[in-house]
Amino acid sequence: SGFAQACVKAHNDGRIDLLAAVQQPAFVALESHKFFAAQQVYCDAIPHLHADVDALMECCTSLVRRAGQDLAGSMPYGAFRDWCANNPDQASRIIDEARAGKDRVKDFVTFALHGANDIKQAVAFVEEFTDERCLYAMTALGRMIFPDEGAARKVLAVLEPLTGHSWDDRVRANALAASFGILAKHPDLLIARRIVESAGSGPGADML
């Protein structure tokens, strides 16, 4: 919107601090309708801001928490993903910090991986980690753009064993969701059938 563009220009020129504004009492006191209108302005503006990544993560967290359970509540994460796409160096910083186990970036690494479309790093997270970083990376893989069918199949080959041979239901569910996210863009009936059969015969299949 024109107003969002004006806010971006004012922020990037240093005339306002758009990110700090969400902590101001007047913003916190906004009634629901006005808050979601303001949140939309932020979502339009965030991808284009010149911003410190820590301040941006704090702003997005505040917006998401304030929105509560509303279906639109997670929209700032999508804006952050687009910001990462526009700022690949900062996305790499978040990914590196997640690799190092920094808790403060854990809620954002999915969007950094996705925004950067960093297939290699996401696969490495899946292969190397057994904690939430593995789950976040699988979520990102399911949303990524692959250069060709071969690249997609390589990632499916990493995910397929996790759909049926893990005792962790979260791992299996995320691997299945990521696999079908990829297959939606790169259909392969043989692989899809194999994944379904694997998921259906693995431990705890009745919980899927």
Defining traits:
208 residues, mainly alpha, 69% helix, elongated
Briefly summarize what is shown.
This protein is mostly helical and 208 residues long. The protein has helices spanning 2-12, 25-28, 32-45, 53-67, 75-86, 88-99, 109-116, 119-128, 132-143, 149-164, 169-185, 189-201.
What would you say this structure looks like, in words?
By secondary structure, the chain is mainly alpha-helical. It contains twelve helices and no strands. The longest helix has 17 residues. The radius of gyration is 19 Å and the shape is elongated. The termini are far apart.
Q: Assembly type of the shown chains?
A: single chain
Shape: elongated
Order of helices and strands: HHHHHHHHHHHH
**How many β-strand stretches?**
0
Terminus-to-terminus distance? 42 Å
Helix content: 55-70%
How many helices does DSSP assign? 12
Largest sheet descriptor: none
Stretches where pLDDT is under 50 for at least 5 consecutive residues are none
How does the helix and strand content classify structurally? mainly alpha
pLDDT averaged over residues: 93
Radius of gyration: 19 Å
Kindly estimate the percentage of residues that lie in beta strands according to DSSP.
Answer: under 5%
